[in-house]
Amino acid sequence: MRLNERPDSDLPARPRWLAPFGGFALLFLVASQAVGLLTSPPDRDMGDLQKIMYVHVPAAWISFIAFFVVFVASLLYLWKRQERHDLLAASAAETGAVLTGLTLALGSIWGRPTWGVWWTWDPRLTSTAILLLIYVSYLALRAFTDDDERRARWSAAVGILGFINVPIVYLSVKWWRTLHQPQSTPSTVDPDYVLGLRLNAFAFLFLLIYFVGSRYYIARLERAAEARLEERALREG
């Protein structure tokens, strides 16, 4: 991602692609949801409740991608010690945490009429909840650590170690006996649901790109503003 500097300011300029891409991502999401909701028949067992899959499943998939970005950016920071990698990891962690929270909330809504309870300590649900707690802790660590270098190093370590839980979440339905159904993929769901599932997976991927890009830009602005304030304080002091 390239951020051009304004000639009259040391603050980074908003990337030109960001706003139009955000509009495209929103329209694509609306269209994808319409395809999923309007073109697929009710499930034989779950009826229209099945259509929660078009948000629940893509949100889970794309949260894994977000945490992979955290993992890679954290490794790059520990290797090169460049601030941009730390800010990218933090931006992806925020977005991934939101998507994981959405996954759990929709899973509870689905589970209440299906299992008769809002929550059960099923391996898939429990490991996903742990994943959310890891990245909420990552964000809390960043919020309560004042030293920039220490914050970046500590959060990079959490981002790398926390990613270990991602394959555990994904494979939990294979490793343990679980109430949760097997992974929903284009190869495991009814053909009537494949198009809607694929379109919404891309829709959530586009949203991920937009949100991470927006948060990264804001983080750059915050760091530039902090540097300006520190410089002013030194001059005046």
Succession of helices and strands: HHHHHHH
Mean pLDDT: 87
Distance between the termini: 36 Å
The CATH topology annotation reads as Four Helix Bundle (Hemerythrin (Met), subunit A)
- Uncertain ranges: 1-8
What would you call the structural class? mainly alpha
* Number of extended strands: 0
Helix content: over 70%
CATH architecture: Up-down Bundle
The biggest beta sheet reads: none
The CATH class assignment is Mainly Alpha
Strand proportion: under 5%
The helix tally amounts to 7
Characterize the overall form: globular
How many structural units, i.e. domains? 1
User: Rg from C-alpha positions?
Assistant: 20 Å
Structure at a glance:
By secondary structure, the protein is mainly alpha-helical.
Q: Key terms for this structure?
A:
237 residues; Four Helix Bundle (Hemerythrin (Met), subunit A); 75% helix; globular; disordered N terminus
Itemize the secondary structure elements and their pairings.
Layout: H1 18-39, H2 53-80, H3 83-115, H4 123-144, H5 148-162, H6 165-175, H7 191-236
Helix pairs in contact: 1-7, 2-3, 2-5, 2-7, 3-4, 3-5, 3-7, 4-5, 4-6
Structure characterization notes:
By secondary structure, the chain is an all-alpha fold. It has a single domain (18-236), classed as Four Helix Bundle (Hemerythrin (Met), subunit A) (Up-down Bundle), CATH 1.20.120. The chain has 7 helices and no strands. It has helices at residues 18-39, 53-80, 83-115, 123-144, 148-162, 165-175, 191-236. Helix 1 packs antiparallel against helix 7 (191-236), helix 2 (53-80) runs antiparallel to helix 3 (83-115) and helix 2 (53-80) packs across helix 5 (148-162). The longest helix has 46 residues, at 191-236. The protein is globular and about 70 Å long.
